[in-house]
Amino acid sequence: MTKKIYTIAAFLLIGCMLTLTAQKKTLYDFKVKDIDGKPYDLAKLKGKKVLIVNVASKCGLTPQYAQLEELYQKYKDQGLIILGFPSNDFKEQEPGTNAEIKEFCTLNYGVTFPIMDKITVVGNKKVPLYKWLTEKTENGKFDAEVQWNFQKFMIDTDGQVSGYVLPKGSPLSAEIISWIEKP
After folding, report:
1. Is residue 14 part of a domain?
2. Residue 137's Cα: distance from chain center in Å?
3. 1-54 pLDDT, tens per residue?
4. pLDDT at 24
5. How far apart (Å, rounded) are the C-alpha atoms in residues 111 and 102?
6. Looking at the domain assignment, is residue 9 inside a domain?
7. What are the φ/ψ torsions at residue 173 (nearest 5 degrees)?
8. 105 carries an active-site annotation
9. pLDDT (0 to 100) of residue 14
């Protein structure tokens, strides 16, 4: 009987330790590449609110680039950073090379917020950043599998995921504006 109690206690302790470890990971623990293939250390975003969005050029939601740019222009001086991560995961709606994606974003939407290297955001090949964003075992908060292009993840000034907005939700939604303006 005592052996069973110790075994159960050991498993509970291990479970608690794993949860605490997951909660300690922040955005700042990740390094990615920008659209030009240069290393981009997310630790340089400490103290900023970050909106991470998986983007695509040939999607019905692609016009959200304009809203994302509008949001960025309005709030960048208050510490907002938007990071666009191109992904070809949904019906191959981002088939271009990084150079083509960069040109598309600049010419069609005047995008000035950082666009990153094309990545995988779903499935067993998703990059570590998106594993952290989408899995409770990694972020300590919630499971939020990416459902489509333009899903938005809100990261607070401490580098923790604080929420997400589904793809059809506008970048200019009350939820996102409220999150940005909240001290």
Report:
1. no
2. 16
3. 666 665 555 555 565 555 554 457 999 999 999 999 999 999 999 999 999 999
4. 79
5. 9
6. no
7. -65, 155
8. no
9. 61
User: 14: part of which helix (H) or strand (E)?
Assistant: helix 2-24
- CATH number of the structural domain spanning residue 123: 3.40.30.10
Contact 155, 51 (CB under 8 A): yes
Q: Which two tokens stand for residue 140?
A: 């300590």
Euclidean distance between the first and the last CA atom of the chain, given in angstroms as a whole number: 52
**DSSP-derived secondary structure letter, 139:** H
> Is residue 105, in this structure, part of any structural domain at all?
yes
User: For residue 119, which of 111, 109, 110, 129 has the smallest C-alpha distance?
Assistant: 129
Domain count, the chain: 1
- Of the candidates 155, 156, 157, 154, the one whose C-alpha atom is nearest the C-alpha of residue 165 is 154
Domain span at residue 52 reads 29-181
- Short-list 43, 41, 129, CA closest to 85: 129
> Active site residue: 59, 66, 122, 180, which one?
59
Model confidence, pTM: 0.87
What share of residues in the chain are helix, strand, coil (percent, to 5)? 45, 20, 40
Residues of 160-173 as b/e, b for ≥16 C-beta within 10 angstroms?
bbeebbebebbbee
